[in-house]
Amino acid sequence: MTETDEAAPVLVVRREILVPRERVFQAWLDSESLARWMRPGDSTHATVSVDPRVGGGFRIVMEGPTHGAVEHRGEYLAIEPPSLLSFTWISRPTDHRPTVVTIEFHEQGAGTELVLTHRGLPAKAVEGHRRGWTDILRLVEEALTRG
Amino acid sequence: MLDQVYGALADPTRRAIVGILAEGEANVGGLAERFPISLAGVSKHVKVLERAGLVDRTVLGREHRLRLNPEPLREASAWLEHYRTFWDTRLGALEAFLLKQGPRPGEDRR
Fold first, then answer.
1. Which residue on chain A is closest to B4 by alpha carbon?
2. CATH 3.40.50.1820 is held by the domain B2-70
3. Tens-of-pLDDT digits for all 110 residues of chain B?
4. How far does the CA of residue A104 sit from the closest CA of chain B (Å)?
5. CATH placement of domain A10-122
6. What are the strands, taking DSSP E only, across chain A?
7. pTM for the complete prediction?
8. Which residues of B touch A129 (CB under 8 A)?
């Protein structure tokens, strides 16, 4: 972890799955598997294309009645089976701005613990000033809780 | 809009102004006293923050009161909240998918 990493907005989600990590890892890079689980519950289907190599891209289009077709795309930054996967993630919710998803796969008995980190990358203009983000958000929270 | 918010916060003086306004209202003159730059310089920074929707200005006679508007900041980090639910649900779907698939031949089933 570098200092700049800590300063960007970040989200961490954990999950334990009772399946060996080789299989859990594989499910992230296989287009047929991804089409099955990488889509919201109300979506009818997903179209997935992946080029699973560092520098290769992926594209997932989730189709559903509520939001129509929602596209997510990105590029692989690190592929280290079965322990680490990292890719950029660009979508409408990220304002079509690149964010970075990193997943660690930890062996846990016969199963796997996934630690997914989703990190915001501020605009290029803010590079080198990322520390400002957390400070500002904290100040604003404090101001709001004071009423 | 987000680009304007990120751009406005790219500057350390403007971040400091946001920090001061997070503590309470101020006027341009009062702000200028706290920075080693000219009143015109501070005023310019305030205008950038106004354009990004981060600062509201109220004119009372000759006094210009400045107030922080935190809403754009919340929007700028709203994608995080969206993805908290998104990833939580997706990882649940991944688990269901893998468990349904069952173990592969030769795989240890404990």
1. A123
2. no
3. 666 787 787 788 898 898 889 888 999 999 999 999 999 999 999 999 999 999 999 998 888 899 999 888 777 667 777 888 889 989 999 999 999 987 766 655 44
4. 13
5. 3.30.530.20
6. 10-17, 45-50, 57-64, 68-80, 84-91, 99-108, 111-120
7. 0.64
8. 9-12, 15
